[in-house]
Amino acid sequence: MSVMNKFLNYLGLQEDEAPADRDERYGIEDEQEVETTPFETRKQSSRNNVVSIHSQKNARVVLTEPRTYDEAQEIADHLKTRRSVVVNLQRVRRDQAIRIVDFLSGTVYALGGHISKLGPNIFLCTPDSVEISGTISEMLGEEADYSKMR
To answer: Do residues 92 and 115 make contact, with C-beta atoms less than 8 angstroms apart?
Structure first.
């Protein structure tokens, strides 16, 4: 039906044809195969896709270099908001570094996350939504052996 016929039907100036009469007049059969474009096929198949509800739109990794034990709570707050944190403990005294790692280990355990040692005095703390795979082996006598590796 053309646009003009639809317009005239809307105004009531022309009667709408019966669908059966129109089909017979134009020789349209009821069992006609309808062609679909590749786009329509893709659109129909995409309805069955499964999408994760917990996909993070803005995944962030926070780098921290605490200087005192008091900053451990800020790191724990980042973990509570589901952000991964790289903690560099090279600027902290050894006794405070041990306390910070203990505190973060408890926080990570409570959240169901993971803590990994990346290097000397460097740790990666991740929430449960982040999976860590692989390992980093420690170098024995890091500075002495480093010159041999060159």
So the answer is: no
**pLDDT score at 8:** 72
What letters, b where the CB count within 10 A reaches 16 and e where it falls short, cover 43-81? Answer: eeeeeeeeeeeeeeeeeeebebebeebebbeebbebbee
- The structure's pTM equals 0.55
Distance CA 63, CA 45 (A): 42
CA 110-113-117 angle, 5° bins:
115
Q: Which residue has the higher pLDDT, 60 or 29?
A: 60
How far is the C-alpha of 35 from the C-alpha of 140, rounded, in Å? Answer: 68
Q: Which residues pair with 61 in a beta bridge?
A: 84
Please, are residues 135 and 122 in contact by the beta-carbon 8 Å criterion? no
Structure-token pair, residue 115: 């803590």
Q: Estimate to the nearest angstrom the gap between the alpha carbon of 28 and the chain centroid.
A: 50
What is the distance between the alpha carbons of residues 34 and 113, in angstroms, rounded to a whole number?
53
